[in-house]
């Protein structure tokens, strides 16, 4: 319910949403810190066999999938459509920073999602190279690589600080502590989404009909990818990551003519993203 209230707050309080935008990087870092504090270093790092499997998952999601979509859209002559650009950027992006928290809120182990988040973000400088080579209109590759490296550093620093604190303060947290951390993560997510909705609230009031195609795209993309991954036998963490990607990373590199509609796409993308723990929980609860 907190996440839904955050979405509504983003719609209803555009001035607050705009004022919060500069603070989003710090709030995302805090969310990673809280998620890592809940998980612990041993669970987050996993085993060597997990690393090999996760590498395959990341390459399939961030490289194989967008390349397949590029080939399909090229064959259909739809590669330059704004909707195609938005979908491709989302599919090429790594996991959102909130994926471990989402997984925990649905009653599942957040550690696998944390591993995919760290590995996917770290590999982004490599996985985006073929995409930008095939889509030169996307702009500068160097800026995307630099943004990915900065985000990787933030995630690693926040997670390392959390692992250090947990090892000394509560190496074996009880159920009450775990629930408190889950609640703090949910509250942080609800605050973050207010700032992320800064482009959607004004558009909803000025031209709500213009939002409908973008809303249809983001719901189909987010929930559709989660359902597809689950149908193909993916675990909960991989399914959540499949539909929830950090597309905002690409804003630093794209030319102005692509950024403007993409801001609306990113804002709309938050809606199914933040509804994931509520809408998708029954699906993931069946296994």
From TrEMBL:
Keyword Transmembrane helix: yes
Keywords: Membrane, Transmembrane, Transmembrane helix
Parts of the chain that traverse the membrane: 58-77, 83-104, 116-138, 144-164, 184-204, 210-229, 249-272
Protein name: Sodium-dependent transporter
């Amino acid at each position: 319910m907190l996440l839904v209230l955050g979405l509504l707050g983003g719609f209803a309080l555009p001035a607050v949403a705009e004022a919060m935008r500069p603070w989003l990087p710090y709030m995302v870092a805090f969310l990673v810190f809280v998620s890592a504090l809940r998980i612990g270093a041993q669970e987050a790092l996993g085993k060597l066999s997990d690393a090999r499997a996760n590498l395959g998952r990341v390459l399939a999601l961030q490289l194989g999938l967008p390349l397949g979509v590029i080939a399909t859209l090229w064959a259909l002559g739809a590669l330059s459509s704004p909707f195609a650009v938005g979908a491709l950027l989302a599919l090429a992006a790594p996991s959102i920073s909130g994926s471990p928290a989402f997984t925990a809120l649905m009653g599942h182990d957040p550690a696998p999602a944390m591993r995919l988040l760290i590995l996917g973000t770290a590999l982004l400088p490599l996985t985006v190279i073929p995409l930008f080579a095939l889509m030169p209109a996307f702009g500068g590759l160097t800026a995307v690589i630099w943004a990915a490296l900065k985000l990787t550093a933030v995630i690693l620093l926040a997670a390392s600080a959390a692992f250090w604190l947990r090892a000394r303060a509560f190496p074996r947290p009880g159920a009450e502590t775990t629930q408190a951390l889950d609640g703090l993560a949910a509250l942080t997510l609800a605050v973050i989404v207010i700032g992320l909705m800064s482009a959607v609230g004004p558009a909803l009031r000025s031209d709500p009909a213009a939002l409908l195609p973008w809303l249809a795209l983001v719901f189909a993309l987010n929930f559709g990818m989660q359902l597809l991954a689950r149908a193909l036998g993916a675990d909960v963490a991989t399914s959540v990551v499949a539909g929830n990607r950090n597309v905002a990373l690409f804003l630093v590199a794209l030319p102005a003519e692509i950024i403007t509609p993409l801001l609306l796409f990113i804002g709309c993308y938050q809606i199914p993203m933040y509804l994931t723990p509520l809408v998708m929980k029954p699906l993931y609860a069946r296994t």
